Structure to design on (619 residues):
């Protein structure tokens, strides 16, 4: 019991401390690449955490979660194209767009279960994808280059490598804490209860649909915020952000880390991207190694990285 | 829009529908009977095409290439079943999606390593070369007609197999209640092997038939896989009849949508906007269709299991 509580609190805490120290490491060893790479990883970690919230706790296998990255990114990119750089306008707007998209698509998708849910979320993801390819005023297929980054009350915080890293880090930490608190609350218990036995949940007078939809919207909104950050990180937005391959990768990250713990998703995002970077450093055919590795992880690594750490 | 164009595009739509059916049939059977989501099914389609190209380079004959392609595709499918899939039948859907995603990554890359990233092609056989005139001096390639006919033939064969034979009866029973079938003393593992092997051959056959008209390249199965999933979800998972109807609907809607969406959009929008909206709308059409079907019938058009 004692050790379990230690890993439940200690591991995420240690993880965030290590992540907070990355800029220090980068500064000491003068390694700009590590800092930029870590920034990118943390943005994906935000999305993975939000996906784990609905996947691990609510059993909603969304195969269109990448759509929110794209929508958030496009909100920022399109505003920048019209010379609106203020983050206090573009970021809330990106989140609002994603919340609305999640509300509408979630309300329809959550009528279905299982594979049908997987496929209908994929369908909505594809619709968002094709919508952006048709925006010829904003680059269409080729994407849209941003000639700068968002501006936060004239501070230029988005432009510095280190300050931008800490913005992303702060968003990740806040998202993690908010979602963690929610999973521990009555809301989270309803979500998990509905996963285990929906009929019993309804029998005690709770309608799981509303809870699922709320969780779905929340996850979409957070992923949209990550998308807004990604637009700033890459200074470029393109439909490729929301391809179904990307949605698949996000699920892989969550499972790889160990789902249903939130910090597992962060570990998964780190592991996936470091693995991809390392393997592609050895050979351009890195998928030849990664594919079988993924199969082995699924077959023999129950519980993902977290399961391995706990030594089960 | 002219009637000739409409006729050609309708035939093209049918042809896409037939291809989709060949892939979706295996997918829906495997899913219906084994409750197994096989994302790697699209890779089987790709393997069929590549192995046929290899067979053609070896023998110089389309027909020999067809036989070689089919046999090797079946062999690859059974090897994969033995090595990987067999271990996944008892796992949840998420594990199945991930592991078969891994198979896709591996095989797409392996094909790239062996045959290179550049598209290959398989020439149509002399017998089916050329075009024949249809209505009002419309020329249509014989090969494409042959594809439609052979696809319909396979569909008919499948219908007879599923509704008139003992194995077919077991397959239908397995799709409805697999536990009961196993309890009645049927070797469910062997049934799985047969269904899986058959589905693999169908996907391989689709790949070989598509090779002369589409380019053979790594990842060629990915997009068709997504379309095939749309088909089986719209049709109702496990239902061959549903897959057939949904495949034709999806094939026709997608093809006709792509050729006429811009024109139709022009009726309501200024030309410049229509040129933007048209293609996007055309790409989205089948997904809108699927969302609409699932909204009204959350288990597809022909639900098999009343769960």
């Amino acid at each position: 019991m004692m050790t379990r509580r230690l890993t439940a609190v200690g591991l995420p805490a240690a993880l965030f401390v290590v992540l907070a120290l990355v800029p220090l490491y980068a500064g000491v060893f003068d390694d700009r690449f590590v800092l930029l790479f870590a920034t990118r990883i943390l943005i994906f970690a935000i999305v993975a955490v939000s996906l784990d919230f609905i996947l691990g706790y609510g059993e909603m296998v969304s195969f269109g979660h990448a759509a929110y990255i794209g929508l958030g990114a496009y909100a920022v990119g399109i505003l920048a194209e019209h010379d609106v750089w203020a983050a206090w306008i573009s970021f809330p707007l990106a989140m609002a767009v994603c919340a609305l998209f999640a509300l509408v698509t979630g309300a329809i998708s959550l009528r279905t279960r299982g594979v049908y849910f997987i496929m209908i979320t994929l369908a909505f993801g594809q619709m968002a994808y094709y919508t952006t390819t048709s925006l010829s005023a904003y680059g269409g297929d080729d994407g849209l280059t941003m000639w700068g980054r968002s501006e936060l009350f004239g501070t230029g915080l988005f432009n510095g490598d280190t300050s931008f890293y800490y913005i992303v880090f702060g968003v990740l930490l806040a998202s993690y804490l908010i979602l963690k608190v929610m999973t521990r609350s009555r809301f989270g218990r309803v979500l998990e209860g509905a996963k285990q036995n929906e009929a019993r949940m309804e029998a005690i007078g709770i309608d799981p649909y509303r809870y699922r939809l709320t969780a779905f919207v929340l996850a979409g909104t957070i992923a949209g915020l990550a998308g807004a950050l990604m637009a700033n990180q890459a200074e470029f937005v393109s439909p490729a952000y929301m391809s179904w391959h990307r949605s698949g990768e996000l699920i892989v990250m969550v499972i790889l880390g160990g789902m249903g713990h939130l910090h597992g998703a962060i570990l998964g995002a780190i592991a996936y991207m470091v693995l991809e970077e390392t393997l592609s450093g050895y050979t351009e055919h890195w998928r030849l190694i990664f594919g079988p590795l993924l199969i082995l992880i699924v077959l023999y690594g129950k519980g993902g990285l977290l399961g391995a750490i706990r030594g089960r | 829009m002219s009637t000739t164009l409409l006729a050609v595009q309708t035939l093209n739509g049918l042809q896409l529908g037939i291809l989709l059916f060949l892939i979706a049939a295996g997918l829906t059977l495997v899913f219906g009977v084994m409750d197994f989501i096989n994302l790697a099914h699209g890779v089987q389609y790709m393997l069929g095409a590549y192995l046929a190209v290899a067979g053609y380079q070896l023998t110089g004959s389309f027909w020999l290439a067809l036989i070689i392609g089919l046999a090797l595709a079946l062999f690859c499918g059974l090897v994969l079943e033995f090595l990987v899939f067999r271990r996944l039948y008892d796992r949840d859907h998420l594990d199945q999606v991930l592991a078969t995603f891994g198979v896709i990554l591996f095989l797409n890359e392996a094909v790239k390593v062996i045959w290179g990233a550049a598209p290959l092609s398989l020439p149509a056989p002399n017998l089916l070369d050329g075009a024949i005139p249809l209505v009002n001096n419309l020329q249509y390639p014989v090969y494409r007609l042959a594809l439609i006919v052979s696809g319909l033939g396979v569909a008919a064969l499948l219908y007879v197999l599923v509704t008139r034979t003992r194995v077919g009866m077991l397959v239908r029973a397995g799709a409805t209640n697999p536990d009961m079938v196993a309890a009645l003393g049927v070797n469910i593992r062997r049934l799985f092997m047969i269904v899986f092997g058959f589905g693999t051959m169908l996907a391989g056959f689709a790949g070989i038939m598509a090779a002369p008209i589409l380019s053979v390249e790594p990842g060629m199965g990915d997009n068709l896989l997504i379309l095939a999933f749309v088909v089986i979800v719209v049709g109702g998972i496990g239902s061959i009849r549903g897959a057939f109807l949904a495949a034709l609907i999806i094939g026709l809607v997608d093809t006709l949508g792509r050729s006429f969406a811009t024109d139709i959009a022009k009726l309501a929008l200024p030309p410049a906007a229509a040129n933007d909206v048209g293609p996007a709308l055309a790409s989205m059409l089948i997904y809108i269709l699927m969302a609409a079907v699932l909204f009204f019938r959350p288990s597809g058009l022909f639900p098999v299991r009343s769960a």
Notes: Chain B has a mean pLDDT of 85.
